[in-house]
Design a protein that fits this description.
This protein is mainly α. 61% of the residues lie in helices and 4% in strands. Helix 11 runs antiparallel to helix 15 and helix 13 packs across helix 17 (513-522).
């Protein structure tokens, strides 16, 4: 490709691009580079541009600013220009690495030129940093190298001075075997010795061969990778095939098991269907029997209803007869009670019995009134006689009944979470309500060890006793029962079996503590 192949980076420079285009001979579109302007033909037998190049290399730039022999003065057109009528040869097509190397060499030595030798389009580029100089100034450098042979000679002199032996070999038209073909082509393009086009072509061939080798190596590497992947895929496929074969064997085995199960289920289904048919036949038979039994039962029900009607009629007659008989018995009983009442009044008058102020329980209470408290006795065996509150109501409904309550036996069973004082207060208050409702005599007995002085007054009809020292509330309860006359209804509330057995022997009615607790909860 030409040296001035369009570049992506744009050079920020003050001078317009037309200046570079006019100086370098760029084409109208500013893209590709036309044939380079080379020096005209020199002496006979010398390649155009050879004399100028050798003069630069041999003599170098003069210290006083004068140009060496064979080189054009500053500002003058080079020898062999288009004015002499010769046709310049076109610029060779440079490989991309060679073009980049030429631009890099020029950018490296550009700051070393005197300011007056640097072309105007490149003066701004010369001030760039090295890494930006070759990248941003590549189009301007390439155009200047192509269109300004004098500038190229100055650059060539400095580049050859830096390359040493390699530059000398390139000037002689030879390329060392170990030299980089790109470097040789770049130096040949700048110095343009005899056979420089062949060097550039050889470099291009070497670059292309290297690129082809790289492509071939890449293709080989890709082929190896594809072969490796194919081998891996083959191994994976073998593993997957093994898995599929194992899965197929397992599926076949399961299929065999399913077939066997299907055969067994078929046999079971047939047996079940046979049993179902038999069951349907038996069901039909039993339905017939049930229908006959239902008919018989309906007939029997009608007969029983007829008998029931007859029995109800007979019962009505019996109830009427019993009512008449009860009326006669009630008259006789009233007459007997009236006779007994009059006899009792006559007997009381005969015996001159005056009304009494104290009851038998009061005498027992007076005997223990002045005694000191005693420790509570050990826990006795608890038992329950009956806990029916209806039974308690029946007994309290008897005339002149006496209710004796084992205090702590009831409170600890009903509301033991309270303190003893609260237990006593709650029980005594509840018993006061029962005494007010029934009008019966009520006595509650507590162990003397827990006696408290300064107790609140007892409710009307409730007597509160504490056992004396050395005795328990159970013994005091038995004394109260023994003090009552035979025939008087005495009800003792205690869940202690010993108490219940003891008072029962003296004619009292023992009841459990739960009966009183239910009666208190109801009221």
């Amino acid at each position: 490709m030409p040296l001035t192949e369009p570049h992506d980076d744009r050079l920020p420079q003050e001078e317009p691009v037309d200046t570079v285009r006019d100086a370098g001979g760029l084409g109208p579109d500013g893209g590709g580079l036309p044939a380079a302007v080379e020096p005209g033909p020199g002496p006979a037998g010398v390649e155009p541009g050879r004399e100028a190049a050798e003069g630069v290399v041999a003599d170098g730039p003069a210290d006083d600013g004068s140009t060496p022999e064979g080189s054009a003065p500053k500002g003058s057109a080079p020898k062999g220009s288009a004015d002499d009528g010769s046709t310049p040869e076109p610029e060779p097509v440079l490989p991309e690495p060679v073009r980049q190397r030429i631009v890099a060499l020029t950018a490296a030595v550009l700051p070393g030129l005197p300011a007056d030798e640097v072309p105007v389009p490149l003066r701004r580029v010369a001030k760039f940093a090295p890494n930006r100089r070759a990248r941003l100034g590549a189009p301007a450098i390439a155009a200047q190298l192509t269109g300004d042979p004098l500038f190229r000679q100055r650059i060539t002199a400095r580049v050859l001075a830096d390359t040493g032996d390699l530059g000398a070999a390139v000037l002689e038209g030879t390329a060392p075997a170990a030299a980089d073909p790109v470097e040789v082509a770049a130096l040949a393009y700048l110095a343009r010795p005899r056979g420089w086009r062949e060097l550039i072509e050889a470099s291009g061939a070497a670059v292309r061969a290297e690129a082809d080798s790289a492509v071939v190596a890449e293709l080989v590497r890709e082929a190896e990778q594809r072969a490796t992947r194919a081998e891996h895929d083959r191994a994976v496929a073998r593993v997957e095939a093994e898995k599929l074969r194992d899965e197929l064997a397992r599926v076949r085995e399961e299929l065999g098991q399913l077939r066997e199960e299907s055969r067994q289920l078929g046999r079971s289904l047939r047996e079940t269907q046979a049993r179902e048919r038999k069951a349907n036949e038996l069901l039909a038979t039993e339905r017939g029997r049930a229908a006959r039994a239902a008919a018989d039962a309906d007939a029997e029900l009608r007969r029983v209803r007829a008998r029931l009607a007859e029995a109800e009629a007979t019962a009505g007659v019996a109830r009427a007869s019993a009512k008449e008989a009860r009326s006669v018995d009630d008259a006789r009983l009233w007459l007997l009670l009236e006779t007994i009442g009059q006899a009792a009044v006559g007997l009381r008058r005969e015996l001159a019995l005056d009304p009494v102020d104290k009851l038998p329980a009061d005498f027992v209470a007076d005997a223990f009134a002045d005694q000191t408290a005693a420790p509570a006795a050990g826990a006795a065996t608890r038992a329950r006689d009956t806990d029916d509150p209806a039974r308690l109501d029946q007994l309290l409904a008897l005339p002149r009944a006496h209710l004796v309550v084992d205090g702590y036996n009831v409170t600890k069973r009903g509301f033991g979470e309270m303190s003893l004082e609260q237990q006593r207060k709650r029980l005594i208050t509840g018993l006061g309500g029962i005494a007010a409702q029934t009008g019966d005599e009520v006595t509650v007995v507590f162990d003397g060890a827990e006696r408290m002085h300064g107790l609140p007054p007892s409710p009307r009809g409730v007597r509160v006793l504490f056992s004396r020292k050395g005795e328990t509330a159970d013994e005091l309860i038995r004394r109260l029962v023994r003090a009552e006359p035979p025939g008087r209804p005495v009800v003792v509330v205690s869940s202690d079996r010993e108490v219940a057995d003891g008072v029962r022997r003296h004619g009292a009615y023992p009841l459990g503590a739960d009966s009183l607790l239910r009666r208190l909860a109801r009221s």
